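Reply to thread "Modeling small-molecule complexes from scratch"

Following up on the discussion above, here's a worked example others can learn from. I took a protein sequence and the SMILES for 2-phosphoglyceric acid and predicted the complex. Inputs first:
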Amino acid sequence: MPKLILVRHGQSQWNLENRFTGWWDVDLTDKGLTEAKAAGALMKDKGVLPTTCFTSLQTRAIRTLNLALEEAGRLWLPVTKDWRLNERHYGGLTGLNKQETRDKHGDEQVHIWRRSFDVPPPPMEPGSEYDPGADPRYDGIDVPYTESLKLTIERVLPYWESDILPVLTSGETVIISAHGNSLRALVKHLSNISDDNITGLEIPTGQPIVYDFDDNMMPGERYYLKDS
Ligand SMILES: O=C(O)[C@@H](CO)OP(=O)(O)O
């Protein structure tokens, strides 16, 4: 039975500092490193071991994957990295402190920017401090200036259909190490969650989520590996 494992990267430096992160490339904290290793130990304990891997182009997700694989004894697995699994782009909010932004713009406005389905944050100024546009890892890619969840879904789902689903269908156990909002996009699709209800879904860091697929490639209920 094909199995899909989703893991959100461990705590990042800007998760800790409560800053809007998006495409900015921050690393894991010590807690994040521990969470990533624990995810790998859990996979090993439960005997749920990936056979192929996908991740974003962002250090926090790549390192989480590597640490988890090392702990599970599977550092040798093939890994595909793709920008379409990146976090949603936080536009002009990137780098700002979330509490200070609430104090300035109000709780409601910040909630809309963070969790509405289709309202993107204000766009980033091209060439500004946290614009990743000139980063060589994005050569040849139209780096966005902001993204709502809806826009994130519009790049995650085509990649899921074209590159990940066929591998899963061939019988592999796939792990995707990614981000709060790129994983929210996938869970919304796989668990058939409405545009309104997706705002309430929070994906914890470093906690593997599993979907078992049936013979027709229909996903079952998602569950946390720790609860299985
Ligand atoms: O800052 C971000 O990029 C994301 C994920 O950490 O935050 P939010 O919870 O606001 O989607």
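What I'd highlight from this example: The first strand starts at residue 3 and ends at 8. The chain has one domain: 3-87+147-227. Questions welcome below.
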